[in-house]
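Data availability excerpt. The first of two example chains:
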Amino acid sequence: MTLLRSDLRPYGTSIFTAMSQLAAQQQAVNLAQGAPDFGPPAALLQAADDAIRRGGHQYSLSIGLPALREAVAADLLRRHHRQVDPETEVTVTAGASEAIWCAAIGLLEPGDEAIVLEPFYEQYPPVVSAAGATVRYVSCDFPDFRLDPQRLTEAFNSRTRLVFLNTPWNPAGRVLHESELALLGELAERYDAYLVSDETYEHLTFDAVAHLPVAGVAACRERTVTISSVSKTFSATGWRVGWAVAPPALTAALRAVKQFVTFAPATPLQLATAAMLRDAPTSGYYDLLRAQYAQRRAVLRDHLERTTLTLAENEGTYFLLGRCPDDDVAYCTDLIRSRGVAAIPASRFYADPGRGRGLVRFAFCKRLDTLRLAGDRLTGGG
């Protein structure tokens, strides 16, 4: 017997949990979960150590420390020439996940619909269901994953309330283009909907492809909740410090939920994040981050191209997506057992797994020696 409410039962155990558990049992190299096997930059650790030693061990404001909200606002102004008010438009959350949850619970009514692009990050559909709303999927096709304007337009209707976006896009590896975002903004305006834009991979783009913030597109600006965090940018997935930036009315809805969830993330980690956001642009950190990840991507891609997989292009994120000749779940299970490498069967990122059959996702947020070991196992060299 299960006591879980009926509309959440179909989601079951996270595929990340399932594959990581199997990888641990088989002592496989885990390229399934998107968590680095290396630590944060020394500057962030030093800032955390300083914050812990000088105090700041009690609750911050539920909306986040002023220092961090101000640092987020200053960072947006410096990098994207976007001016936001840290008092009314920036909210600190327990990672991007809490921001996504609070946006869904705060903005969706029972009977509403939320559009989710496929392949999706697996958190989006369950939060829609938890809010009592319905997911409407818009599928995008391997290998380029372009948004089909007709499919997108047909998905909108009078019940559409939210659209969940991820750019750079996990697991597709794409960066959404201005024309795609402009269409989304126009449709959102027409149907009085809002965009929840998960931009946690904003600093991980390659080959001269630039990240375009969704709120940087005029048609989207007043209807977008922009979400980011320290997890991917600063290799600190366990810190659970994120933020949401949105116009005041959207921010007020998100904050109304957030105060009753975690209340506030760890105060010293907020202080450390504020210091890192202030210093990273002038230290060259972001350029170094992209260069290091480009090298990791090249190492893994070189090995994957020598397998039977057909790879999609990767413009951003730290994932490579390929198509195997057969069923992806069977492929990934066999990969762990016969090759000692764990990957994610990406058909699980589709409501109907048949639409994503054969897709496999590999994470390259690992040390170079980890990637080379995995590569040797994949190609039969180790």
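And the second chain:
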Amino acid sequence: MNCIIVEDQPPAQRVLKKYIEDVGSLELKGVFSDAIQAMEFLEAEPVDLLFLDVHLPKISGIDFLKTMANPPSIILTTAFSEYALESYEFNVVDYLLKPFSFQRFVKAISKVSERKKMGLPIKYETDSTSLRKEIYIKSGYEHIKIHVDDILHITADSDYTQIATKNKKHLSSESLRFWSEMLPGKLFYRIHKSHIVNIEAIEKIVGNQIYLFGGIKLPIGRAYKEKFMKSILK
């Protein structure tokens, strides 16, 4: 199988290249530090398998997936915890949670091989039934379970993010970018450098302000407005 690596951290690149060399069925066609480079390569030379990091410069791994109409088999390489990965909208073949062993790497490759033997399609579609209905938020030493539908909005607050639900607010040590990539993209939208909103909680939009049910008012950032309005009005 032909494959490429999309990973911006040199140590992680080295690990993946060494593991790929040790697996006889894989042929590495390229290593890219950002999704733009990988996108240009794939337009000219499609591959069978893509090792994709989630946190990348310019375009995140998840946003990169959204741009691909006919993606190859995808194995995510990430430092995210398992509960977050299970919430992804895309049916990736497997993920490798850093740091991962060679044995775990081989197991991921075997899943790709098995998928091909079974003749399963490579094109992945969003499957809303596979999305988690609940998430766990790490707050201090606690892991608090929250129903995704109860989240109204998420706001960056210094080194933390504040998650406002229908009943209360929670502080999380995860970044706003983390939540933007982890939550269902058809339900939650980034509207500002400091805000993510649940579109089902919106009562009205007036100019550059969003009004949520319950009297909450949030600004729409100039850089986000056009994309956000197109998404909700289509």
